[in-house]
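Key result, reporting period 2: structure in, sequence out.
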């Protein structure tokens, strides 16, 4: 496959992904409450404008011959970067926070799986104690996952109380984890 075609496929896939993200945001905006809806539609307007610029540059690239396409590539790369930067900069504090929470929950799941594997190698008595504590920690992680689901569907008015509840749950999980590490690691 020639370099131009490979690059073109990559950009086309990225543009499809951006279209899906923007359409998802529009669906959320359509279902949001009035104050949030206004902010989301403003965000959509800016994103659609950046997407249109990137799409126009992509069409220009497709029309260029194999010997001239490299001339348009820097401006297309810049348009794609602008779209990504705009997406990140227009996201709400809640969206950033939710992403961080999701990453932390994934990290906890990985840690719990690793500890379960270590517990399997321990003596029978220690293994039983470790697995019991791991199950308790996993239950707390699952509670946090449920709170995250609630947080995602909550309106702005509920967000702050759910955030506080989540923070308390995360603090409890960290304390439980530290206690576990002190005993077994």
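The corresponding designed sequence is given below.
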């Amino acid at each position: 496959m020639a370099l131009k075609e490979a690059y073109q496929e990559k950009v086309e896939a990225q543009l499809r992904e951006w279209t899906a993200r923007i359409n998802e945001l529009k669906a959320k905006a359509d279902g949001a409450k009035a104050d949030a809806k206004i902010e989301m539609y403003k965000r959509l307007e800016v994103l659609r404008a950046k997407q249109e610029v990137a799409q126009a540059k992509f069409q220009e690239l497709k029309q260029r011959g194999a010997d001239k396409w490299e001339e348009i590539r820097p401006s297309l790369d810049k348009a794609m970067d602008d779209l990504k930067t705009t997406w990140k900069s227009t996201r709400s504090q809640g969206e950033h926070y939710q992403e961080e929470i999701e990453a932390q929950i994934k990290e906890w799941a990985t840690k719990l799986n690793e500890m379960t594997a270590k517990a399997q190698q321990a003596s029978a008595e220690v293994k039983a104690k470790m697995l019991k504590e791991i199950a308790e920690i996993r239950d707390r992680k699952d509670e946090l996952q449920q709170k995250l689901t609630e947080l995602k569907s909550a309106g702005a008015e509920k967000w702050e109380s759910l955030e506080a509840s989540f923070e308390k749950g995360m603090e409890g999980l960290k304390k439980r984890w530290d206690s576990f590490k002190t005993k077994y690691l």
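The chain is about 90% helix and 0% strand. The CA atoms of residues 61 and 178 lie 55 Å apart. This case is discussed further under Risks and Mitigation.
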